[in-house]
């Protein structure tokens, strides 16, 4: 039986799904890795693996959700009653709960930087030491916790309104705004002196720079960057009409994710190279290098404001999906109201995330396996829980679900899609699991 919640249109579903997939990693981590891992050569690898690994996995989750019309946990129960397969759903819910607990910390940092930027615009202050500002920001225990709370409140307010009135409505605003902001920033970056040096760093194919590590990263990123492996797309696709074909939205999400990553690189690296800065990975690029770059550009404060707004949009649209899978699972099971459960679970995520928020201040001396609390949570989610979930989903779809059901969901009665189904089924059954195992072992340092 289909849930009452449903997307009002296919474009709403595509934009919300793309918003879930396009997060901070796609915007700042992937462009950097591209630049130091062969440029255009790495992009070609990422595109190839996205189509051969990420796309099949995404379609697999779409099939599970749309065929049952149920959220993550109930969907597996409906397909495989009386079995333990529904634990994949529980794994996905737990992973998203934990992921949002520390992801919201970064969202809080962005909100703090937006506040600093607006304050500077109003006060017209001079240049800022962004390294000192970043250190002061992450080490202030009160401010980081408050900012994390504000980020989660925004997320809760949207999810509490439901699929159409909340997630879909805001995604239809934020995703086009994301593209517009990128175009403005790219235009400004490309008009700077020596901007082409940054474009060359980002896109020039250099196959000699490709290593086994970068190939494995391209494979891993192909499914990490599409929100697969945590059953988010199972929940999102459960709200999709039975009349819609699944191939088009899945391919649209993959291509939009790649396109956003390309736009991010074209916005970031021409400006970075033009002003002689060194591109760095991780938070340093977002919170130290880029603000310093904009500080040296005419109307730089305004462009930095646009860039921070862009990052906040990307972070929020991903956060919506993480909270949605948690809320959908619990409201379906206990029948409680969406609004109340959104606030309850949002508060629980906030409390669990406080140690991560304090990892660089009050709890900076506390470590787990040699890592800070924040880094430990990140490692657990990225290197263990997500690959495990992706592997189990690929096995469930190709070995537990009935082939006839898979075929009917994918081809929607069109015989012209039979060949596409055959290729997809082969990839899901034989290729995808092997690739995920390879990435999983590599992430644990076992190969």
UniProtKB/TrEMBL annotation:
Q: How does it sit in the membrane?
A: Multi-pass membrane protein
The record's annotation in PROSITE patterns points to: NA_NEUROTRAN_SYMP_3
Question: Which domain of life does this protein belong to?
Answer: Bacteria
Q: Name one GO cellular component term.
A: membrane
Give TM regions. 12-30, 42-64, 85-111, 142-163, 175-195, 215-239, 251-277, 297-330, 342-360, 380-399, 420-441
Q: What is its main location?
A: membrane
Q: A Pfam family in this protein?
A: SNF
- Localization of this protein: Membrane
Record key words, sorted: Membrane, Transmembrane, Transmembrane helix, Transport
The record's listing under PANTHER family reads:
TRANSPORTER
Q: What is this protein called?
A: Sodium-dependent transporter
């Amino acid at each position: 039986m289909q849930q009452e919640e449903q997307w009002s249109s296919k474009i709403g579903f595509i934009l919300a799904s793309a918003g879930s997939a396009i997060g901070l990693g796609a915007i700042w981590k992937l462009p950097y890795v591209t630049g130091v891992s062969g440029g255009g050569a790495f992009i070609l690898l990422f595109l190839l693996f996205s189509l051969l690994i990420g796309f099949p996995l995404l379609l697999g989750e779409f099939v599970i959700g749309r065929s049952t019309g149920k959220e993550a946990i109930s969907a597996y129960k409906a397909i495989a009653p009386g079995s333990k397969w529904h634990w994949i759903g529980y794994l996905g819910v737990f992973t998203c709960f934990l992921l949002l607990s520390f992801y919201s910390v970064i969202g809080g940092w962005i909100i703090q930087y937006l506040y600093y930027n607006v304050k500077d615009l109003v006060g017209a202050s001079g240049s800022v030491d962004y390294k000192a500002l970043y250190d002061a920001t992450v080490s202030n225990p009160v401010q980081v916790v408050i900012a994390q709370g504000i980020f989660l409140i925004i997320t809760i307010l949207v999810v509490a309104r439901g699929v159409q009135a909340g997630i879909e409505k805001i995604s239809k605003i934020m995703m086009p705004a994301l593209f517009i902001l990128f175009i403005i920033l790219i235009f400004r970056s490309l008009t700077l002196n020596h901007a082409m040096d940054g474009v060359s760093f980002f896109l020039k194919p250099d196959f000699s720079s490709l290593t086994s590590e970068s190939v494995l990263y391209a494979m891993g990123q192909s499914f990490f960057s599409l929100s697969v492996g945590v059953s988010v797309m199972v929940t999102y696709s459960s709200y999709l009409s039975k009349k819609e074909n699944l191939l088009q939205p899945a391919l649209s999400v993959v291509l939009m994710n790649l396109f956003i990553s390309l736009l991010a690189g074209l916005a970031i690296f021409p400006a970075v190279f033009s002003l002689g800065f060194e591109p760095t990975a991780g938070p340093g690029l977002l919170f130290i290098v880029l603000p310093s770059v904009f500080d040296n550009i005419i109307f730089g404060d305004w462009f930095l404001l646009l860039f921070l707004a862009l990052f906040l949009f990307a972070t929020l649209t991903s956060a919506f999906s993480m909270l949605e899978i948690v809320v959908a699972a619990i409201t379906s099971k206990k029948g409680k109201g969406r609004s109340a459960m959104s606030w309850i679970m949002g508060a629980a995520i906030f409390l669990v995330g406080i140690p991560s928020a304090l990892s660089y201040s009050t709890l900076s001396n506390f470590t787990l396996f040699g890592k800070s609390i924040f880094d430990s949570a990140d490692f657990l989610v990225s290197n263990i829980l997500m690959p495990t979930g992706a592997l189990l989903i690929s096995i469930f779809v190709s070995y537990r679900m009935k082939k006839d059901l898979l075929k009917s969901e994918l081809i929607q009665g069109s015989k012209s899609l039979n060949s596409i189904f055959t290729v997809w089924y082969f990839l899901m059954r034989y290729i995808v699991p092997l690739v995920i195992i390879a990435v999983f072992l590599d992430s644990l340092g076992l190969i």
